[in-house]
Design a protein that fits this description.
heterodimer, A: 350 residues, alpha+beta, 6-stranded mixed β-sheet, 5-stranded antiparallel β-sheet, 9 helices, 19 strands, B: 315 residues, mainly alpha, MetI-like fold, 2 domains, 77% helix
Chain lengths: 350, 315
């Protein structure tokens, strides 16, 4: 079931959290709402779920206006950041809840509930835990139970609010892969909120980048990363070096800001066309990569460069790269925006 | 900052401690772990002094009077005791007390849960006004509370004539006593529930709602199980106060023996008539209730704490 959001507005007091939002989520896709805290992504998700009422605009489910449909009739599954499991019920009863509260006419018989819950617990690989209580489970297990509970009512849309936000890094990584696989099996339209760009990149079919209640960009992960529409998207999706109108541009005047990602700078022993003279101030190796911090010789600002550890070791040998050594940096790839945030042709930038 | 100012009293005692004899051994290198602990632990003599003061106060103002009640009650023998508590007027007072508590408890549970529910789970204008109103019975003297009802429902009050014309008696009758009791005990349940329900938030209710539960199902299956021990705790406190209330009830009761006397009022009358043994005998029943309440409170309090801990652990 596809979701369409049209001219959606929502404010809390004086704060505008959704500013005329328009969004299409095709059926069966897994979409990430990505943005910093306060960007309105959670509010948008809650409006889609029906937990929040918009001030204006419409939400369409499968082409039908669902803006004023009660939460209970929207047939959505919602997974909360802090799981919101029912602490006084066993895991089994938690998952069975959505089936048990149905009116008598549509409530499945006890045996059917039993087999459905068992099937879901198997799906999330936690069928051996059915008799325990939520507080006896780890965070990752709780989140999987929360997902099983949401799936029990066979939702047409699955909404997840920072589903891995409260988990530690390793569990988070495992769970997002698992979510991706689960989605590939079930093909239920899913929207999840996150502030973690790696998570969005890894899991989603499409990323919707939000900032200050507006959608900055909407597209597949590669497109959003390689062709950012605004400086915000570029900066939010990873580290980046800023050059304020420093890189020479043939025949054109005007302020502009050029962005170069740390791994897209080449380190040279001798100056070359468009290169910048710098001195090394710090080298830091974390895992497989080395982060080098250079100081520009012309204005004293800092430039970060990231490269594989082996490459760094080779450069250290060939260029004598040690603290204070002078080298030259040549951008391999730049993105330039005018000072108003207008994207400029990258080919003309160098 | 206010916290520091409030504890200014004991502070000098603590400041003296390092130079005091009790603190001397802590300077040795071999007792390093104790030295670490000393940052948050007072020297033993300070601890025992404070405990001693507290115990002495408790003994003087609580245990001795409590013992005195039972000693006086049985002073003239078990026969007098039994006669006093089975006296028709005493039995009528006990019945009325139980009736007033029996009516005000369910009402307060209903009001308390409703008030706590809407304060903890919804945002609306005038929330703080409502909170203040709930606390009103705590801040108003019980006598004033009683007088309010006399002024409203009494013969000279606003509705006095109308009530008389329709042959309805509220003041100097059972309805007045129940009204006064409900008013006095109103904050207990709500006050107990609001902090817990606020700490629990609304996520579980929202989860239940998305899963298709209706309002009653959410309350019955999600909210109520989460607050049941705190609710019981509020009910226990509420009950103790309902049975023991004197001031407000005294104003509206009219002290008609065998009709509008509750236990506290009956005790006062007996005492004023120099029937000390009888008065203490009835008082011992109330004291016994207080002891039962204490034990129940102790047990339930532990469950409430566990409830909160579980809540925190599942987050």
């Amino acid at each position: 079931m596809g979701i369409e959001v049209r001219n959606l507005n929502k404010r809390f007091g004086a704060t505008v959290v959704c500013d005329d939002l328009n969004l299409d989520i095709p059926a069966g896709e897994l979409v990430a709402l990505l943005g910093p805290s306060g960007s309105g992504k959670t509010t948008l998700l809650r409006i889609i779920a029906g937990l929040e009422v918009p001030d204006g605009g419409t939400v369409l489910f499968h082409g039908e206006d669902a803006t004023h449909t009660d939460v209970r009739e929207r047939q959505v599954g919602f997974v909360f950041q802090h799981y919101a499991l029912f602490g006084h019920m066993t895991i089994f009863e938690n998952v069975a809840f959505g089936l048990r509260v149905r009116p008598k006419a549509t409530r499945p018989p006890e045996a059917a509930i039993r087999s459905k819950v068992t099937e879901l617990l198997k799906l999330v690989q936690l069928d051996w835990i059915a008799d325990r209580y939520p507080h006896q489970l780890s965070g990752g297990q709780r989140q999987r139970i929360a997902l099983a509970r949401a799936l029990a009512v066979e939702p047409k849309v699955l909404l997840l609010d920072e589903p891995f936000g409260a988990l530690d890094a390793k569990v988070r990584k495992e769970l997002r892969r698992w979510l991706r696989r689960l989605h590939d099996e079930m093909h239920v339209t899913s929207v999840f909120v996150t502030h973690d760009q790696d998570e969005a990149m890894e899991v989603a079919d499409r990323i919707v980048v939000m900032n200050h209640g507006r959608i900055e960009q909407d597209g597949p992960p590669d497109q959003v990363y390689d062709h950012p529409a605004t400086p915000f998207v570029l900066q939010f999706l990873g580290d980046v070096n800023l050059f304020h109108g420093r890189v020479e541009r043939a025949g054109a005047a005007g302020d502009e800001v050029t962005y170069v990602r740390p791994h897209e700078l080449q380190i040279l022993g001798a100056p070359s066309g468009g290169s910048i003279a710098v001195t090394l101030s710090q080298a830091l190796t974390v895992g497989p990569n080395t982060r080098l911090e250079f100081k520009r010789m012309d204005d004293g600002s800092y430039v970060d460069v990231e490269l594989p550890r082996a490459e760094y070791v080779a450069l250290r040998e060939s260029l004598g790269l040690q603290n204070g050594a002078t080298v030259h940096l040549l951008p391999r790839r730049v993105t330039t925006f005018s000072s108003e945030g207008q994207l400029l042709d990258p080919a003309a930038a160098i | 900052m206010t916290g520091t100012a409030a504890s200014a009293g004991p502070a000098p005692t603590v400041a003296v401690a390092p130079g005091a004899p009790g603190a001397a051994p802590r300077t040795g290198a071999s007792v390093a772990p104790r030295h670490l602990r000393s940052a948050v632990t007072e020297p033993a003599w300070v601890k025992w002094l404070l405990v001693g003061i507290a115990l002495a106060f408790l003994a003087l103002f609580l245990f001795v009077p409590l013992a005195a009640v039972f000693v006086e009650a049985f002073k003239k023998g078990v026969g007098v005791y039994l006669a006093a508590v089975t006296d028709p007027d005493a039995l009528s007072a006990i019945r009325l007390t139980l009736l007033a508590a029996g009516i005000s408890l369910p009402l307060n549970v209903l009001f308390g849960v409703a008030a706590a529910w809407c304060i903890a789970k919804f945002d609306f204008h005038g929330k703080s006004v409502l909170l203040t109103l709930i606390d009103l019975p705590f801040s108003v003297s019980p006598v004033i509370a009683g007088l309010i009802y006399v002024l409203v429902f009494g013969l000279q009050g606003w509705f006095g004539e109308w009530l008389r014309d329709h042959d309805l008696k509220i003041i100097f009758a059972v309805p007045g006593i129940v009204l006064a009791t409900v008013f006095i005990t109103f904050p207990f349940v709500a006050r107990e529930l609001i902090p817990l329900m606020q700490a629990q938030g609304t996520e579980q209710e929202e989860a239940a709602r998305v899963l298709g539960a209706n309002g009653w199902q959410i309350f019955r299956r999600v909210t109520l199980p989460n607050i049941k021990w705190a609710l019981l705790y509020g009910v226990i406190l509420c009950n103790a106060r309902a049975m023991g209330e004197f001031g407000a009830v005294s104003v509206v009761s009219g002290h008609i023996r065998g009709q509008t006397n509750t236990m506290p009022l009956h005790i006062e009358i007996l005492y004023n008539e120099y029937q000390f043994a009888a008065s203490f005998a009835v008082a011992s029943l109330l004291a016994g209730l207080a002891l039962v309440t204490l034990v129940l409170k102790f047990i339930v309090e532990r469950r409430v704490r566990r409830e909160l801990a579980v809540q925190e652990r599942s987050e």
